[in-house]
Design goal:
The protein is an alpha/beta fold and 160 residues long. The protein is built from three helices and eight strands, in the order βββαβββαββα. The strands form two sheets. Strands 1, 2, 3, 6, 7 and 8 form a six-stranded mixed beta sheet that branches. The protein has a two-stranded antiparallel ribbon with strand order 4-5. Strand 1 and strand 2 form a beta hairpin. Helix 1 packs parallel to helix 2. The two termini are 15 Å apart. 33% of the residues are buried.
Length: 160
């Protein structure tokens, strides 16, 4: 499981004429892979909510989403799992099938909400228009814990 997390001063997603909006907080693009499971969804939600990427009174990134009482906007994005290794057309073989991905997406969102974060969402599988004001800018890629180890192994030339 992988996310692209953007610290925002505001963000919105519009689907079929309906908008979901947040003020200060995180815009979270969530990609779910074939090998991902409920444990990945729960662990990644915990990790993202507790990221210390908001500034404290000294200007250091030392506060989490919870610390600032921020909001989250979670948008499913299977294209984060694209493989661009061959040719010019991305392959999405690593992405989870839609039914499984939606289940894990819902788990992720439920966990973020259960941690006390006011959370809005896009519409799973729909075409969405997203607007945001990136604060900083701060944009991070965050992998589920097991995927972090796999990514490190891959970079070192080992197979997971």
């Amino acid at each position: 499981m992988v996310t692209v997390v953007q610290r925002v001063s505001k963000a919105s997603v519009t689907t079929e004429g309906k908008a979901a909006k947040i003020d200060s907080g995180l815009l979270i693009f969530l990609g779910i892979g074939r090998e991902d499971d409920a444990d990945d969804a729960l662990a990644l939600a915990e990790k993202v909510v507790h990221l210390r990427i908001f500034e404290d009174e000294k200007g250091k990134m030392n506060r989490s989403l919870l610390d600032i009482r921020g909001q989250a906007l979670v948008v499913s994005q299977f294209t984060l799992l694209a493989n661009l290794g061959r040719g010019r057309r991305p392959s999405f073989e690593a992405a989870a099938p839609p039914e499984r991905a939606e289940e894990l997406y819902d788990r992720f969102v439920e966990k973020v909400r259960s941690l006390g974060v006011p959370t809005q969402t896009g519409v799973f599988g729909a075409f969405m228009n997203i607007e945001l004001t990136n604060a900083g800018p701060v944009t991070l890629m965050v992998h589920s814990p097991d995927k972090d180890r796999q990514e490190k192994s891959r970079r070192k030339g080992h197979q997971p």
